[in-house]
Design a protein that fits this description.
The longest helix is centred in the N-terminal third of the chain and has 20 residues, at 47-66. Strands 4-5-3-13-14-15-12-16 form an 8-stranded mixed beta sheet. The chain has a 3-stranded antiparallel beta sheet with strand order 8-9-10, with no helix packed on it. It has helices spanning 2-10, 28-31, 47-66, 88-103, 113-119, 141-154, 264-277, 322-340, and strands at residues 17-20, 35-36, 81-85, 109-111, 129-133, 137-138, 158-161, 165-171, 174-180, 183-186, 190-192, 212-222, 231-234, 237-241, 246-250, 285-296, 303-306, 312-316. It has 8 helices and 18 strands. The radius of gyration is 21 Å and the shape is globular. Helix 1 (2-10) crosses helix 8 and helix 3 (47-66) crosses helix 8. Helices cover 30% and strands 27% of the residues. The two termini are 23 Å apart. A hairpin with a 4-residue loop joins strand 14 (237-241) and strand 15. It is an alpha+beta fold.
Length: 342
């Protein structure tokens, strides 16, 4: 969120400095699976779905910009998402999803057992029904962050890794910069994009409970040769093929504070769900597993834009949709900052 917002501001002629306590993407950004599941992860209509759809529509042009017209790759593929119903209850839920999405003029394809197997032969053939969301897509988050950092450099944005922000500087009731270990950095606007740690930044005036960490564990497998063609979801599990044999599987939803452990139970649950969705993954090689924290701000909208403190802007609270909402967030932050500063 910080890099994307900085890029959008720099493109409007704003002088921007990105402060990162480690390196850009060291936390949740590169730990994500990168599913652009605007439809496949939406279970009922509402304002958030409208944002997800809007941000997904921004992705092709955003990717073109980030990749410098194809000189780089972010792994953007409109692979679609196949969501399986393993029980009649899940099938009824999918039918309700298809009904409201069709009413909203969103593309969704109802599939029976034979249709799902034809679309994705590797998927579980013993299902009640399935939906295919052809407009959902994916990116490879580590590649996305590399491209974002390269784009910042092209725009002349200064990125300071290892910068520890001690507090947001407030003077005369407005944010005037940040206090670092080596002095104060003054600014006309401060954008707080610290993910799950946002409410812990001194001076932000955010309730400690406003943004909470929700741990997600992820497993990477490898198929040789690659068999899976599209993203498959079943129950709480997703399986994301990268096209080169890598398969990212996830994820857990755990309110455990900032405990970043990968647990035996978490990995076991993910593998069980992944193999149920795609039985051939039982023969895949286990490569690695990791975890990080989704910034959860309740079931409401993400926290983006102005705050009660003049000069302080937010770009956090995106929970499961941070990668998907990055281009929309960048645009909204840039709009808010430029409006506030004339």
């Amino acid at each position: 969120m910080g890099c994307a917002s900085a890029l959008a501001l720099a493109e409007r002629g704003v002088s921007v400095t990105v402060l990162e306590r480690a390196i850009p993407g060291a936390e949740a950004s590169t730990a994500a699976a990168g599913i652009l599941g605007a439809q496949s992860e939406s279970h009922e209509p509402g304002p958030l779905v409208d944002l997800l759809i809007s941000s997904r529509a921004l992705y092709p042009e955003w990717v073109k910009k980030l990749t410098n017209d194809g000189a780089l790759s972010v792994g953007y593929v409109r692979s679609g998402v196949l969501r399986l119903a393993l029980t009649e209850h899940e099938a009824a839920d999918l039918e309700r999803t298809a009904t409201w999405q069709e009413a909203a003029n969103l593309r969704v394809v109802r599939l029976d057992r034979a249709g799902a197997s034809k679309l994705e032969p590797a998927s579980n053939g013993e299902i009640a029904s399935a939906l295919f969301f052809p407009d959902d897509a994916q990116v490879d988050p580590p590649l996305l962050l590399r491209a974002l950092v390269a784009a910042l450099a092209r725009e002349g944005v200064q990125t300071r890794s290892g910068a520890m922000v001690k507090k947001i500087a407030i003077s005369g009731g407005r944010a005037t910069g940040v206090l670092l270990e080596d002095g104060e950095l003054s600014a006309d606007a401060v954008v707080l994009a610290a993910g799950s740690w946002s409410a812990l930044v001194p001076g932000a005036s955010l309730r400690a409970s406003l943004v909470k960490p929700i741990r997600g564990q992820v497993v990477q497998l490898e198929e040789r040769p690659p068999q899976l063609r599209t993203i498959v979801m079943a129950g709480a599990t997703y399986v994301v093929p990268r096209g080169d044999g890598r398969v990212v599987c996830g994820s857990t939803m755990e309110a455990v504070g900032f405990q970043k452990e990968v647990t035996a139970a978490g990995v076991a649950a993910i593998l069980e769900g992944a193999i149920t969705a795609v039985p051939s993954l039982g023969a895949a090689a286990f490569v690695t597993a990791w975890s990080n924290f989704r910034p959860f701000a309740g079931d409401a909208m993400p926290l983006v834009g102005t705050t009660e403190v003049p000069g302080l802007f937010l770009a956090t609270g995106h929970h499961r949709n941070g990668i998907l909402l990055a281009p929309w967030t960048a645009r909204e932050v840039a709009n808010a900052v430029t409006r506030a500063n004339g």
